[in-house]
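S1.2 Input.
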Amino acid sequence: MEAGTWRGRVGVRVTVTLTFAVALLSVATGVSSIGFTAASTQNLFGGQIPEWAQETAGFTGTLTGFLMLASAFGMRRGLRAAWYSTVFLLPLTAAQGLVQSSPYSLPLVAVSMASLPVVLAGRRRFDREVDLTTTQIASLAALAGVQVYGTVGTYALADHFQNVETPLDAFYYTLVTASTVGYGDLTPTTQTGRLFSLTVVVLGTASFAVALASILGPAIEARLATALGRMTETQLELLEDHVIVLGYGDLTEPILNELAEQVEFVVVTPDPQRVSELSDRGFKVLKADPSDEEPLERVGIEEARAVVAATNNDAEDALAVLTARQLNPDVRIVAAATDRENVDKLRRAGADSVISPATIGGHLLVRSALGSDGMESVADRLSGESPKAD
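S1.3 Output.
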């Protein structure tokens, strides 16, 4: 499928990797550019760019790099907001690289401009809305509110502070005070200023703590899920051009062994024991009913290369095949029929190809018993055994 091939080339992994590369280059270039301009006024444009502009681009370029890192992590989750952020930041990093005008900034400019069309081409892959919880929204709002409160209050009480002359000074004082850094270069000089500073310290530290807990909590939970052998949401979202195995039965094991050598796959089964066993073996597995729509959407049915249903229950396979076909009419679905009379039923459910292992085995046994040429070697290959030497 031509569209599927294009999606495979411009996939989530490529886009996210390029974004990470630009982010790291932006940080490294910004830091090196600051040192470069401090040591010399020469630049790639013959000294046409003032040193203050180079230094400013270096500082802001470092900040942009960290923002790009946040965008890359957001794109790993398929967030549309992160995609928009990346599209905005890529031209900015290229422009900052040009203004920095150091020998180290050329790779940043080149990679940024090369990454932009790739990110633009993968736009439809990032369609997930930001799903912040009420607690996260409230904590971020509280954090922003404290910064506004501290900045406005400090500037309004500038006469009660030493060296506070501009709104930037007030914001700087609020940030270093609320984060408990406290450099000491800006200090309150009156009782009123000290009382106000106490409120900034208390509210600021509380808002920082709540915001970190609400934002980092899900990330820590994801790490624990990985350690316990379960798929995280990020792993599920990064699945593409893969095979989905619906259910688990006696016929499933040889299928997994074959798939493990050729293509990425994920198993969907409601059996907790099978989930644990497959996770211990390093296989991707999701504990869910394969005939339900929600788990199939989570494992990327729309981006799957193929679907395989091969359990010991033809009725369950038929329901799973029917659901998969409804969710993705174009995906190739293969099913194994335990009973020969269910072959047509599985086809009507939506399977493109239905194989009856019992029927195939019977044909091979009879032909091998009658001495048909090549049947023994075919049977050996299907069973995984090496053909016997003459």
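S1.4 Remarks. Residues 1-10, 37-42, 381-390 have pLDDT under 50 and may be disordered.
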